[in-house]
Amino acid sequence: MERKNILSTPIVDAINKYIEENNIPFSMPGHKAGKGFFYTDDGKKLFSNIINGDITEVEGLDNLHKPEGIIKESQELLCKLYGGAKAYYLVNGSTSGILAMIFSTFNEGDKIIVERNCHRSIFNAIILRKLVPIYLKSEIDERFNIPICINEDYILDVINENKDVKGIILTYPNYYGICQNISKIILKAKENNMKVLVDSAHGAHFGFCDSLPQNAVELGADIVVMSAHKTLPSFTQTSFLVANKNIDIENLEFYISAFMTTSPSYMFLCSMDYARNFMELYGKKEFEKCTKLARKYRKIINELSYIHVITPEDLKEKNLGIYIDESRYVINVKKQYSAPLLLKYLKKNNIQCEMCDGINIVLILSPFNNEMDFSKLYEVLKDCPIHEFEIENSLNINDIIEQKIPQSKLLPFEAQKIKDIEIVSVDNCINRVCAENITPYPPGIPILIKGELIDEHALSLIKYYLKSNISILGVDNLKIKVFTKM
Amino acid sequence: MERKNILSTPIVDAINKYIEENNIPFSMPGHKAGKGFFYTDDGKKLFSNIINGDITEVEGLDNLHKPEGIIKESQELLCKLYGGAKAYYLVNGSTSGILAMIFSTFNEGDKIIVERNCHRSIFNAIILRKLVPIYLKSEIDERFNIPICINEDYILDVINENKDVKGIILTYPNYYGICQNISKIILKAKENNMKVLVDSAHGAHFGFCDSLPQNAVELGADIVVMSAHKTLPSFTQTSFLVANKNIDIENLEFYISAFMTTSPSYMFLCSMDYARNFMELYGKKEFEKCTKLARKYRKIINELSYIHVITPEDLKEKNLGIYIDESRYVINVKKQYSAPLLLKYLKKNNIQCEMCDGINIVLILSPFNNEMDFSKLYEVLKDCPIHEFEIENSLNINDIIEQKIPQSKLLPFEAQKIKDIEIVSVDNCINRVCAENITPYPPGIPILIKGELIDEHALSLIKYYLKSNISILGVDNLKIKVFTKM
User: Fold this and answer.
1) Helix A120-128 vs helix B249-258: angle between axes, to the nearest 10 degrees?
2) Which residues of chain A make contact with B68, given a CB cutoff of 8 A?
3) Looking at residue B441, what is its pLDDT?
């Protein structure tokens, strides 16, 4: 056999290189480089040789699109674990669950309430299902420059003023692990015959112990989508969908099926089966251990002067009824220092973080991060030559991060149809109508939705993310697409 | 750590059990229990420890939804390999490619021509995109009772009679590996400004050597979707989409992105990168070797009296310009014997086949099936106690398999909206309007589409598949959903 050209498999080569770096994983997926799979004997047996488990739906196995055997049995156990009326494994990530819950709950032309701070997949679903969105803007914590919640009075006002709304889509928690008490909102929405759909992509581990927030299913949401891979020991792109009572199950299942491959990966299904069982048996104990360790090291890390890991106490001060997932670190970098440079330094020292928004660095902790991982994190932070990362902070971040919802010139689905588009530079886009969503990724929250007017505020946000070296979907070579005839 | 209850992970347990059986894989996926990944040194290195490669889109890697680095580079190589204008990796199987190509090519209300023998995902896309389908029925080879092609004169007539049609969706090859020359149809469609979309889920290996059919991209289709996992060394649920010239790339990319998870698996991306490189370097040589071996053993197997593996010569006799993928065995079982019982016997002897339609058994061969695999297959077939599998063949299969398109009472998308449904037994469903697609799986071709009248012919097909113990999506406990008010 010939030796292949080293450059001919760029993805394989990059992943091999990444593996060799042997980083400490404080990022997704939740199994942390496989460690999470070696907790039971059967787990070890399977995952040490997982490629043999990549088989198709042969005799003796089951059909994900019409489960009657092992998948049905496992999904019933999933339902028992989270509560709710029916639960599903998704092999196309939370994206497919979000499409399915939105398509099955709403009809074309329906008016819905949705957080502006929602995930890109929700915006796509709004276009595809031709919905009329009423956006809710977030409260910003000016100390850390992060979105923390939707003001409760404001959201209740919006519900009261829009009785014709068919439902509300909430995100719980957000990417920073911050939650608000959504029970009251759910109750109010239901009083008004509105359905409540929850994107809980970052909350699959919630509700398993007292040191973690309550699970969205428990809080009474109608449909909840949770990424299994983000916080549990399951492969990337696996998710759970849980439907509560009073959902048209047939209709829901049509859309779940339509948006998912008819050739689902049994590697994925195995990992979800494993993760579910892990949470059932060890979830409470292991996440208690994890949050305990997280608190211990948060305290030590917070003795360092140049950063601050956000604490539940910080949030309590706001008196907004918000709290934080303590299995997540949001490291706020003091404003005279560069968070992206700190991120780079951490990576160079083999600390793999989840994301950096330009100001904060987010780490996802898990039961599979042991004390050595935390200790190494602390040591690296302690030894950081932070003076090398000093910056002149020329941006007035508080102004920039503040949520302002741009003026909509076209509904999202109308904008999707129009093809008369031109490409203009970022410097010449002011007062034009945006022809493509502009989304920094991470955190995946659009600044502008297709069809909205590019105003000064939106432009300053774009420039801020560009300056922070964060990749922006919709901005290519400093150019943006706008509609020609508007 | 506690020892978990053996029954608590039904999927993991079943897969562990399956792995222990150590079957010879003549089924998907194309890597054949991992053998396909050990062809290059870097492949060995990565795939022997693939779980470490399950990482998220961290620094140094790339974003599948806005590729600028390794994914972009690899997709460009994919495009170079197949030809065409742009090529994409799909992590949600061919299903997501089919949704994307149909949504991007057609608008709501568009009339399209589509084979009745198309995959379930195409029917779902027709509902979701609200298209008006004109179905084409297949010619059936009465000797083997399999669909072989759409009569060319018939299809050209349909095109001539429906000049307002926006496009045509073809399947090339079908599940049996049978192809017709679609060049003429493509030419005719293009003359009439119709787009040609090809579901080539089973044809990713086509065009790499003279002993295989030409690739659909080469034949001039506008968009082609190919499953990487079916015939190439790539993980289950991975696919390629190739767009030819004159496609609105921006629009296509919106839909590809919308139907795919924003947390794509790098294990999947690695396997597609690997498979592409494998085909580039070794595809020709290895598939020549594979088809040569397949021919050799087909000849020997065809000396057995109770079965017949379909040959290119068989198809030539029909004078329809059809041919067969020689890396696939379609074992036609003589009518006095039971194909399902033969399938069971093969499985018991560790021969894993791809599917059985009740009459034929399909095997997917690959370069990773060595001579020992073929030899074992032959030995097991030779030693078969076929007299034990004798049946009274009471069904007139020729009548049953013949394609008749039921009367449509509601367009697919209209039927999807109606909720007044009742459940009736299979024996009481005649002349009712079907409220759910009825699809035997495999081969995944609907007998009835939601909104169609259940006539005698459709009913006989349902009973035939039930009798053959083939799982039918849409039939539950011998019951079918029909619309109440029709």
Assistant:
1) 110
2) 471
3) 59
Q: Compute the distance between CA of residue B96 and CA of residue B272 in angstroms, rounded to an integer.
A: 16
- Cα(B341)–Cα(B14) distance, rounded to whole angstroms? 22
Euclidean distance between CA atoms B102 and B99, whole angstroms: 5
Name the residue with tokens 């060319």: B152
Report which DSSP code applies to B63: -
CA distance B122 to B410: 17
Cβ separation A124–B56 shorter than 8 A: no
Q: Which of B15, B236, B419 sits opposite A46 (nearest CB)?
A: B15
pLDDT mean values, one per 10 residues, chain B (486 residues):
60 93 95 91 86 86 91 97 97 98 97 92 95 91 88 94 97 96 95 97 97 96 98 97 95 96 96 96 96 98 98 94 97 94 97 92 97 98 97 58 81 91 95 90 74 94 84 90 89
Q: Nearest CB to B51: which of A50, A237, A272?
A: A50
Q: Which of chain A's residues have a Cβ under 8 Å away from the Cβ of B50?
A: 50-51
Q: Please tell me the distance from the alpha carbon of residue B238 to that of residue A92, in angstroms, as a whole number.
A: 11
- ipTM above 0.90? yes
Type of residue at A290: C
CA distance B360 to B309: 9
- How many other β-carbons are positioned within 10 Å of the β-carbon of residue B403? 18
Count of A–B CB contacts within 8 Å? 324
- Contact between chains at B15 and A53 (C-beta distance less than 8 A): yes
Q: Is B67 exposed, middle or buried (0-12, 13-18, 19+ CB in 10 A)?
A: middle
Q: Do A261 and B95 touch (CB under 8 A)?
A: yes
Mutate to test the interface with A, among B19, B124, B263 (most CBs of A within 10 A): B263
Give the tens place of pLDDT for each residue, A256-282: 999 999 999 999 999 999 999 999 999
Of B34, B27, B17, which is closest to residue B346 (Cα–Cα)?
B27
- Eight-state DSSP code of residue A137: P
| Dihedral sign from CA coordinates of B75, B79, B85, B88 | negative
Q: Which residues contact A313 (CB under 8 A, 6 or more apart)?
A: none
